[in-house]
Every structure is written in C-alpha cells, then in structure tokens.
Write a structure and sequence with these properties.
There is one protein chain. The chain is of the alpha/beta class and 265 residues long. The protein folds into 2 domains: 3-64, Arc Repressor Mutant, subunit A (Orthogonal Bundle), CATH 1.10.10; 70-261, Rossmann fold (3-Layer(aba) Sandwich), CATH 3.40.50. The chain contains 10 helices and 16 strands. Strand 10 and strand 11 (182-185) form a beta hairpin. It is globular and about 60 Å long. This is DeoR family transcriptional regulator.
C-alpha cells in the first residue's frame, strides 16, 4: 500500500476514534480525495476490524460510548444547519412547539430566536441558551434530572410536566436511528422521554444528520410513532433512506439551503 494511503487511513481511524462518527463527505473534504477513495479506505479498515460501517460513513469499533454535547457540537455543522433551516420553515405563527435537547435542536432554536408569537418548550440547556435573549418567544423548560453529557433534563419530573401539555410540533434528536428499532440513545430514560414527546405532539420530526442513519451504538430505543417524519441531509443516499421508506416512514432530505430533495417511494 502506498504510504499516502496508509497515512490517510491511520488518520481516518484517529478521527473516527475521537468523534465517534465520521462521514464520507467530511473525510473527502478533509483529505482532498474523492468519495470513492474514502469508501475504499473505509472498506479496508472495516476488513481489518478497526471500523464499523454506517450509512454515509463509519465509526471506530471502540467508540461505542456516549460523547458529550460539547464534543458533538462541532460534528456535521453544515448538515445540522440545513436541517434546522428546513425545520424552522415548518413552524407557524402562534404555535407551541417542543424542542428536545441536543445540538441540532439547538441550531433550530437559533433559527427561531427572531420569531414572534411563538411558544417553545424544551428539555435542553442548549435551546435555553439560544433563546435566552429572544424577547418575543415564550420559553418554558421541562425540569427534572440534568444529564451532564447531553445537557438535557430527564426523569419522572420531566415526564409529569410533559403529560400536562400538548404541542403543535415536536422536534427530536438522536444518537442514532434505524428503520427497525427507531431512535437510539444511551439510556432508557432518554428513549422513554422521546417516545412520550412524540405522543404529545400533532406533528413529530426526528432530526438527524446522515452519518446517524442505520447507526445504533447503544441498546435503548424508541420506535417511530405513526406519522413521524425523519429529517436528514443530502449526504444520505438512497441506500440509507430506503429501509425507512420500506417501513412507511416519511423521509425528508434537505440540501445546504434547506430545500427538499425528492425521494423515491
């Protein structure tokens, strides 16, 4: 193997071990090579037992641990921004919406900060920080037990408050998502809460960038509810979205400008 390829694959493995999730698009831009070259690198690393392939990328086999919100904040930044742009366009004046904890919902909160006549209910500190100075948005927080890694509230107090409310729309995040099992998170308190959130909203959206499709690093899951919509970015190819379509799950794929890519059904 040429030294350049060997060095690049070693660097890819270091990145995957650090960030947990590594997408083909990001690696192609980082190393200045084609996506097909990156896919060959990932195949070699997978064959050697160093990586597990995911839709759109890969993760290190020893990276099945929960990363902090700060670590995740720099990952797939542009994809999260495009997803947040589309999601903000769905919100109507006068609505009451629910935002999960996480970096993508934090990006959505930033998009909504200049809105008027809007109520945002959240479990996430990132959302609270983004909307702290939004004088025309009413902000309500579902309290409970704070999880330091996710910077979100969970537990019986959170669930009790949630059961007294309904929402026009709920926007959920995830550590991973599969068509078979639904949303994947680090513990059952998180997945139970997400399931309850979706049940309290008229419209529910799961916001995940492409590298999380087909990825389930943990063993706690929340199934997709009826009518829920999966929203991802254009790094997701048809192979990544097909399993969701096959189960009747609505999928929205948005480009960097927040426009929708037509999906086969």
């Amino acid at each position: 193997m040429p030294r350049g390829a060997r060095d690049r694959r070693a660097a890819i493995l270091r990145l995957a071990s650090t960030s947990g999730l590594t997408s083909v698009e990001e690696l192609s831009n980082t190393f200045g090579v084609t996506a097909s070259t990156i896919r060959r690198d990932l195949s070699q690393l997978e064959s050697a037992g160093h990586l597990a392939r995911t839709y759109g990328g890969a993760m290190a086999l020893d990276a099945h641990h929960e990363t902090s919100l700060r670590q995740r904040s720099g990952q797939a930044f542009e994809a999260k921004r495009s997803i947040a742009t589309w999601a903000a366009d769905q919100v109507r004046t006068g609505e009451t919406i629910l935002l999960d904890s996480g970096t993508t919902t934090g990006a959505l909160a930033r998009e909504l900060a200049t809105r008027r006549d809007l109520t945002v209910v959240t479990t996430g500190l990132t959302v609270l920080q983004e909307l702290a100075q939004a004088t025309n948005v009413r902000v309500e927080c579902l309290g409970g037990t704070l999880r330091p890694l996710s910077q979100g509230f969970v537990g019986s107090l959170t669930e009790a408050a949630l059961e007294r409310m309904t929402f026009d729309r709920a926007f959920l995040g995830a550590d991973g998502v599969t068509a078979e099992h639904g949303i994947c998170e680090a513990d059952l308190q998180q997945t139970r809460l997400k399931e309850l959130m979706g049940q309290r909203a008229e419209h529910t959206y799961v916001l995940v960038h492409a590298a999380k499709l087909g990825h389930h690093p943990f063993h706690a899951h929340a199934p997709f509810g009826p009518g829920w919509t999966l929203v991802t970015d254009t790094a997701a190819d048809s192979a990544a979205t097909a399993p969701f379509h096959a189960r009747g799950i609505d999928v929205v794929v948005v480009d960097p400008d927040g426009r929708v890519r037509e999906e086969p059904h």
